[in-house]
Amino acid sequence: METNTDIIISVKDLVKAYNHGDVVALDHCDLDVKKGEVVAIIGPSGSGKSTLLRSLNLLEEPTSGEIDFEGVHLVSKKIDINRHRQKMGMVFQHFNLFPHKTVIENIMMAPVTLKLKTPREAQAQALKLLERVGLADKKDEYPNMLSGGQKQRIAIVRALAMEPEVMLFDEPTSALDPEMVGEVLDVMRELARDGMTMIVVTHEMGFAREVADRVIFMADGSIVEEGTPHEIFDTPKEERTQNFLSKVL
Amino acid sequence: MFWDWWQSLFTDMPAYAFFNFKFLPKYGYAVIQGVEYTLILSVVSVLLAVLPALMLATMRLSKCAPVRWLSGAYIAAFRSTPMLVQLIIIYYGVFNAILVPKFLIFGFIDSTRFIPGVVALALNSSAYVAEIFRAGILAVDSGQMEAARSLGLSQAQSMRLVILPQAIKNVLPALANEVVTMIKESSICMMLGMGEIMFAAQTISGSTYITIGPYMLAAIIYFAINYPTSKVIEHIERRMRRGDKH
Description:
- By secondary structure, chain A is of the alpha/beta class.
- Chain A has 9 helices and 10 strands.
- Chain B contains 9 helices and 2 strands; from the N terminus they run ααααββααααα.
- Chains A and B meet through α2, β6, α3 and α5 of A and α6 and α7 of B.
């Protein structure tokens, strides 16, 4: 697949330690993501996949190392992290929709509060996005009336409403009933086709193989192996990758 | 006629009888005013406590340690000393320096006593309400804050638009319970001559020589207000819990 060679996110020597260094969640990770690239991060639980992803928008503050996003050092007290987070959409395992707001209020809140759009513009855009994921009729429902798959599609729309440059997905289908996984993956597949830069922590190996440009295998806080889906899934070099894949495939 | 019949119920009762309510025909109005005074005093105190409590609670959850200590010290001081002591210090100490203009609130509440009293109760209550708010904020799923921050909202915006609306809903029953507590605790204000229920009872007892009756009536009134109220709150709490299940 042809991709633009501009690097949009660059991670250098990232370390995240807890309890004064007793627990190391990320052990000197390096990662470059190009514009338009879809990167899937796989690995056993506790391997640091989510920590790496959550470090990218500083939901986890790294202990040391560098994160560059569009050429800006994010690990710095001088920058306004809120402004850069606007450009990084994030989708969570447990959706995290705001239960006290309707679907359309969930989507409109951030663009309107941050004065990026007038309420009228935000509403028009929200409706358009909702139509794209087939949920326009749910716009006035509260989240607790929706199924898991619907909630996650709304959460994706909420992130897209900020018109992000990158979308971060933190195990977006892990909390879903099996019959709802497909509808969420469909939306993500379409996003990837439209050229969105995506970093996806996932247990869906089929999705990673089919949609990702690059697959990263992590274990014990380190990036063990990375390559094309073909390289990782069909001809893994590292023993730990082979062991993991033999268990999940 | 009614009063005659009513009074006949209380004749031939010794002054120390528990249910000697002979004073009622003459002092009924004082009791009613006392009830009004108590209700106004406690509701206003808790309402005044809400904003400072919200501030204390957010300070308590702040990342900055000195801010956390400051709020913690306030809460500790007010929760670990008797309300009577606080009341006297604030009334005779603080309001010795601050002159309150004299006027009547609702035609029977003396501002020079009411305002210092309300301030003292509100300061005390804010320490308790702060802890209620803190628990309410912590009870909101941490994913909510993360989702709001990931959209680019600031800490303050996330708090105001996402966390607090959910926290306040969780906290309303506890806040109503604080009013119930305050209805009882405000009886302490009789010490300052504020005309609430206990002060009315004391006055009546003093001028009629009926020793226990007025206090029995006060107890019955407190119970009649607080017990049904807390039952209603319990009921609402149960219904809210059911609504939260997915």
